[in-house]
Design brief:
Largest sheet of chain B: none
Number of domains of chain B: 1
Helix content of chain A: over 70%
Shape of chain A: rod-shaped
Shape of chain B: globular
Radius of gyration of chain B: 19 Å
Order of helices and strands of chain B: HHHHHHH
Helix content of chain B: over 70%
Number of strands of chain B: 0
Largest interface: A-B, 19 and 18 residues
Strand content of chain A: under 5%
Largest sheet of chain A: none
Distance between the termini of chain A: 80 Å
Structural class of chain A: mainly alpha
Structural class of chain B: mainly alpha
Number of helices of chain B: 7
Number of strands of chain A: 0
Oligomer: heterodimer
Number of helices of chain A: 1
């Protein structure tokens, strides 16, 4: 009985931990997308500044 | 695919290590000691998280010193990310410690110099966040925060390492030397889980730090762009 309880707790912790890992990978993907967008925006801004200077 | 695997190998190593720690921590043999009994397994989580916190707060200290030396905004953002990560690990460490205390000392919190020092140490870092939030000027905020972070790191170690030893009346283990690292502190059969746990929590702390740093950098860049327009 006690062994089963420990098994359930360990499995639950493992599932929570793996859930957190999946969430972290998802966040990383979202951040990577935002970084790409920001880079494009910065390039666009640099281009605008150059044309304004000309 | 291979490139992603190659780039993220250390993350996968961390995931594997901590999965092993969860399984090994619950199922591997531990010495059954009086008072502690099975709760000794919490050492893999409580001490591991606390070590992870110390590691990442040290990283924060390094970046704060770097900011004061080279004045680069990146270093300030990295210091901020490390303090947030450290706070998260600190709160988790306190939480796991409270659960442990309930089952061994009979109460979630006891009036003990080591425990009180730990919570005051975490509050010192919460004050870092408050300091940042109270300053509007970006450069001033970064400079003040960097100076405070150096101060906070020293204070933190005084609170958790020096003051409890001077009081010499703590029921928390580790009054002489470092808990779980001194030779008689940990049973040999526990080392095969404890050391991977330390490595796993270090990797997890570093991973969270990189995620936070990247999102903080985006936040600051958007702020910069909107200010320029």
């Amino acid at each position: 009985m006690a062994g089963e309880k420990i098994m359930v707790v360990a499995l639950l912790l493992l599932v929570i931990f793996l859930g957190i890992i999946v969430f972290l990978f998802y966040i990383e993907r979202r951040i990577a997308v935002s970084e790409k967008k920001l880079k494009k925006l910065e390039e666009l801004q640099e281009g605008n500044e150059l044309t304004e200077a000309e | 695919m291979m490139q992603t695997l190659y780039r993220n190998w250390w993350k996968y190593a961390g995931i594997l290590l901590l999965s092993y720690v969860i399984i090994g921590g619950f199922f591997f043999e531990v010495p059954l000691l009086p008072v502690l009994h099975e709760t000794i397994r919490n050492i893999y989580f409580h001490v591991g998280m606390w070590f992870g916190m110390m590691f990442i707060l040290f990283v924060g200290l390094v970046y704060s010193i770097r900011y004061l030396l080279y004045n680069k905004a990146d270093d300030d953002q990295k210091a901020l990310a490390s303090v947030i990560t450290g706070l998260l690990f600190g709160v988790l460490g306190l939480f796991t410690g409270m659960i442990w205390a309930k089952f061994t000392w009979g109460s979630y919190w006891v009036n003990d110099p080591k425990l009180n020092g730990a919570v005051v140490g975490v509050l010192t870092y919460l004050a870092y966040m408050l300091l940042r939030a109270s300053l509007d000027d970006g450069e001033k905020r970064a400079r003040f925060a960097a100076v405070y972070n150096v101060f906070a790191f020293v204070l933190f170690f005084i609170f958790i390492m020096i003051l409890p030893r001077l009081a010499s009346a703590s029921i928390h283990p580790g009054l002489d030397g470092n808990p779980a690292l001194s030779t008689g502190d940990l049973a040999p059969e526990m080392r095969k889980v404890f050391f991977p746990a330390i490595a796993g929590w270090f990797i997890m702390a570093w991973w969270l730090f990189t995620i936070l740093y990247r999102s903080i950098r985006i936040h600051f860049k958007i702020e910069e762009i909107t200010e320029n327009q």
